[in-house]
């Protein structure tokens, strides 16, 4: 939030800007009349030259490039050609200057409106308030019946068949969670995340960034946190309780909590440690299972070979999730222990089997980090999941064209808000945590939250956007994976609680569906029937399965294995996006929110993934509709902004038509900085069109998934991120690009050396129009507009935080240049 002094400085400049507008309009009108009544072309040139030089705003020249014509005007008569050229040039400078002055005024008015919005407390969104109250009531209501812990113990006992006690084994990785002193590097890592997290308040982000700048304070905090860790069993939530607030996460409202930075750092450091321990344990457990399987297959002949075969198949499914290594009547399918021995090999480092392990590891990492579905995570979880699923579909259709492939999508309803505390604590106990440590976890789960005039404790669910919560949730879901694969020969591709199950067997997909229902029933969870779906590619879908198409955000999988944008989900999302944009009165804030939705649209429709031509065409259609009809048919964002600016800042009889290029021009250069959805969509489409047609290999040896071969190249060709096509560099435009970078660094106090692909497209497409309309890129002066003060706060929030509440839509779009 702006300080009082910053607000006064900004207001002073912006008010002066508004007052100068009338005088400037009069000056340009008078100059036009003078030129009109001047008889000769040379005299008109002299009038234009002198008049334009004298037009200033707050003593700042608006035509600094009109200079050095004195020899032409005061010396010997020059040629008619030269006089005509400069006459035409300055005649064009006149409307360009008038437009520049109008745009500077409008830009200042937009900023003034934005600053004014920052200084006022906003009315919370009613839908968000209602959702917050509902989730708070759910969290604080009496706990549901205790889950059936017999299933948990059974699953852990099954994992003990590796010959190692799971509790003792896990504690080799997690035993130091509460013992090792907290380091400065751990604190800095957490502060770095908090300073950029869209899921925390602007105040929290700013305080975290301020701490990061002071290494001494980071060290002091690490030492203080270590003291708290030494008596961790005394820790509890603040006595006054934490604040709960609703947050719109681009597709729905969620309940979040906020509290002091010190407590946040303490919990996030410990959460990071638990996350690392869990990841290391799972990786080691996987290697141990593969090793045990290998030893089992090398064992001498056994009198009861069928028993050994079943044991080997059980280990193989848990270790590899390979749906093609089962008892299906195919030539390469192992039917006996001997077949399985010849089939199974430790996969080549570059093989389909190893690629699957790598993808599962990435999804596991995305599921336990804080932004697995967000637009700011290091690993694009949803993109990776969709590419992985599509690669498996393409592989199945190429390798087994006559076989069906069943794809089942599961979603757990309100997963994090309905997690049973008893369930989580039982899992932690089975992982070997002591009673003292379990008491700490219980207090973490029982969040003390302000509710009305008093306080209450969470009785179920976990606080969102905490590493502890994500890891605890992943511990539950990992057991769900285990329960499914021990009951059905299927492959699971999962991102958090969005679960995709694949198999070529109708009986196995039914078993998987039943196993998932059983696990949820026994653990107090429930599947979300509205978000579950299934298809059978190349066959018929069993009646017991969900009959809707599988959907991920705004993408759906069709019966024939093709992907496309789910227009029903898109229409619902678009309506919510409109409401979010219109919730804010400031037009600049509306643009910020619109930009966030463009960014989300790219992820939600998987524009950066190669999901086939049908999908690509549907993304272009969705982007076109978003761009051209955001508010209604034939009324996109630009038309709505033009109308609003006309009504708010211009005279009713004004004939000024704001140029389209100005709306897309970056805010650091005096434009509105609106993101062009069609440039993004067409840029991805252009890159997609350059992908070569894939031809699957003709031969498929028995160990085709364990070797480095053409099948690997075919498989991995579907697993890659598509980037925006780069514009072709031209010498003339690159000079302007470099000048723009230099100008931006001057204004933003940055050291940027290049432009991103998107902003290069904007400069290449709209730069010539800006030059034609305004005569220069440098039409904005920071002496006239308090841009640096604005930008200093632009990165933190979308609204005032008088109560340290937040109803924004996440972190702002990255600044151009």
TrEMBL record:
Pfam families: RVT_1
Coiled coil: none
Domain of life according to the entry: Bacteria
Domain Reverse transcriptase: 311-557
InterPro entries linked: RT_dom
PANTHER family: REVERSE TRANSCRIPTASE DOMAIN-CONTAINING PROTEIN
Protein name: Reverse transcriptase domain-containing protein
Organism of origin: Ktedonospora formicarum
